[in-house]
Amino acid sequence: MLDDIYNTKIIELASDIVSLGRLDNPDTSATKVSRLCGSKVTVDIKIKDNVVIDFAHDVKACALGQASSSIMAKNIIGSSKEELYEVSETMVNMLKNNGPVPEGKWSELAFLQPVKDYKSRHSSTMLTFEAVNEAMNNIK
Predict the structure, then answer these.
(1) Angle at 35 between CA 44 and CA 120, to 5 degrees
(2) Residue 116: how many CB atoms within 10 A of its CB?
(3) What span, in angstroms and rounded, lies between the C-alpha atoms of 140 and 119?
(4) What is the pTM of this model?
(5) How far apart are CA 101 and CA 78, in angstroms?
(6) Burial of 69 (0-12, 13-18, 19+ CB in 10 A)
């Protein structure tokens, strides 16, 4: 059963995380922790004219949290706040309501679709999105 969610692509994504670390002077930061498993993601973001221009993250998570963080890091630069909220909503809908998978530059998130059948894994999968949303909400 768990082979469905811990497939080769998820392991590849988890092992290829870019932008690890912290930014020196971020415009906004946020940390989210999963109460279920203890996974933790901290994001630092620089934003200009409503578009992300720099990003770093500290990821202490399981393979699913690492995979979603990896995809976030590969795609966040150049994304608007609205786009980031939208992809987060799409992920929640995909996991909780069997909704469609994200498309376009976020299409790799489709590899996380099997997680929908494992509710206890939703939290770690969504950490990076929750951290980014909180960081974006902190921007006035």
Answers:
(1) 105
(2) 18
(3) 34
(4) 0.93
(5) 21
(6) buried
Domain at 1-136: CATH architecture? Alpha-Beta Complex (3.90)
Give the whole-angstrom CA distance, residue 116 versus residue 94. Answer: 7
78-110 pLDDT, tens digit per residue, is 999 999 999 999 999 999 999 999 999 999 999
117's tokens: 């059948």
- In whole angstroms, what is the distance from residue 42 CA to residue 35 CA? 15
Band (pLDDT 50/70/90 cuts) for residue 2 is low
In the three-class reduction of DSSP (H, G, I as helix; E, B as strand; rest coil), residue 50 is classed as: coil
Instruction: Name the token pair of 55.
Output: 């990003």
